[in-house]
Amino acid sequence: MPVVETAHQQTANTKNQILENARELFAEHGYDGTSIRQLTATLNITPAALYYHFASKNDVLEGLAAKLHDGSDDLLKRISKFDQSPKSMREALSQYYDLLADDIHVFRLVYNDAAIQHSPIGQRLRSQAREFYAYLVGPDPSVEDRMRAAGAVGIIRLSLEQRGVDPDKHREVVVERAFRVMSDV
């Protein structure tokens, strides 16, 4: 293996280790309760090594949430072409399920940590969530429309947050239940 390729792989591994460690520490201590020293100590790297990969703790958070943010952007682009038909609504809920299932741990961090919610990436993720909700409720929503959308999103989110639940195994049941709430069936 060429030296350049090996160095690139080590850099990527270190960066991924930092992100994984940050996910665990942010979940345990909160974003504000986690220091750069904590992020580096358990990995046996120096703060300088962390700063080689990330400019700040906020940059670590941005890296951690990038996959969820980019996936949300992609979802919003796809559903912007959807109408409000039952078929489109079911597909939107199905794609939302897949998005959260793919990164539920980061979603849980954003949802549960006020400091993350108020960070730049947290604000962008919340804005994306509002856009998705706006699609679900449609134009000029009634109180019932809002309740149905909140219920459908809640079913998906809470189902995925259950520890030990296999997202692939329960996908169809959860999406169908969320759709039934949305369509009031």
Can you tag this structure with a few keywords?
185 residues; mainly alpha; Tetracycline Repressor, domain 2; 2 domains; 0% strand
Task: Describe what this molecule looks like in 3D.
By secondary structure, the protein is mainly alpha-helical. The chain folds into two domains: 1-54, Homeodomain-like (Arc Repressor Mutant, subunit A, Orthogonal Bundle); 65-183, Tetracycline Repressor, domain 2. Helix content is 79%, strand content 0%. The protein is built from ten helices and no strands. It has helices at 3-29, 36-41, 47-53, 57-79, 86-102, 104-112, 114-117, 120-137, 143-161, 167-183. The chain is elongated. The model has no long low-confidence stretch (mean pLDDT 92).
Report strand %.
under 5%
* Number of helical stretches of at least 4 residues: 10
Structural class: mainly alpha
- Residue stretches low in confidence (pLDDT < 50, at least 5 long) are none
Classified in CATH, the superfamily of the largest domain is Tetracycline Repressor, domain 2
What radius of gyration results from the CA coordinates?
19 Å
Number of separate strands = 0
- Count of separate structural domains: 2
Shape: elongated
The CATH level-2 architecture of the largest domain is identified as: Orthogonal Bundle
Mean pLDDT: 92
CATH top level of the largest domain? Answer: Mainly Alpha
Share in helix: over 70%
> What pattern of helices and strands is seen along the backbone?
HHHHHHHHHH
CATH topology description of the largest domain: Tetracycline Repressor, domain 2
Major sheet description: none
Instruction: Measure the end-to-end span.
Output: 59 Å
